[in-house]
């Protein structure tokens, strides 16, 4: 069970992202009070997909049996979140802390900054996006068989206090 005894700080971020091509869909988040992972970085920001992401997209598509023509990987915007974990504001009264969140209809993926190089976390979120592109109705469900079959289940020991979304 996650600790909720600290009142989470609600952050409003992304207001300076006027240069982004599209508005950030997650326009604020809560964190648990442990502060920024990297003091020199903004709380969140758009980043260029890392070189290895291209291969990871291919692995995800192949494993999920999604045709390459359905993958719109160049449309996806990646945002880092500069905290150990985060809870998107729409989570409501009992925020669910996560290390990744995918807004597939908007083709935006948010990842806790320490996880942007972690294959399991990034490919897990890519899988949600790929399932959406493949018109899978419950693309947002971690109960989909593809996560287990492709080794993309999130392990709790990897991320104390956080789960993926
Ligand atoms: Zn998930």
- What would you call the shape? globular
Question: What ions, cofactors and ligands are bound?
Answer: zinc ion
Can you give the helix content as a percent range?
A: 10-25%
Largest sheet: 4 strands, mixed
- The percent range for strand residues is 15-25%
Distance between the termini: 15 Å
Structural class: alpha+beta
DSSP summary: helix tally? 3
How would you classify the quaternary structure?
A: single chain
Q: How many independent structural domains?
A: 1
Q: Brief overview, please?
A:
By secondary structure, this protein is of the alpha+beta class. It has helices at residues 53-64, 119-133, 145-149; strands spanning 9-12, 28-31, 44-47, 77-81, 87-88, 100-103, 108-112.
Description:
With 165 residues, the chain is α+β, with helices and mostly antiparallel strands. The chain has one domain (9-158). Helix content is 19%, strand content 17%. The chain has helices at residues 53-64, 119-133, 145-149; strands at 9-12, 28-31, 44-47, 77-81, 87-88, 100-103, 108-112. It has a four-stranded mixed sheet, covered by helices on one side. A three-stranded antiparallel sheet has the order 1-2-5, with no helix packed on it. It binds zinc ion. The site of zinc ion (ZN) has 5 residues, from helix 2.
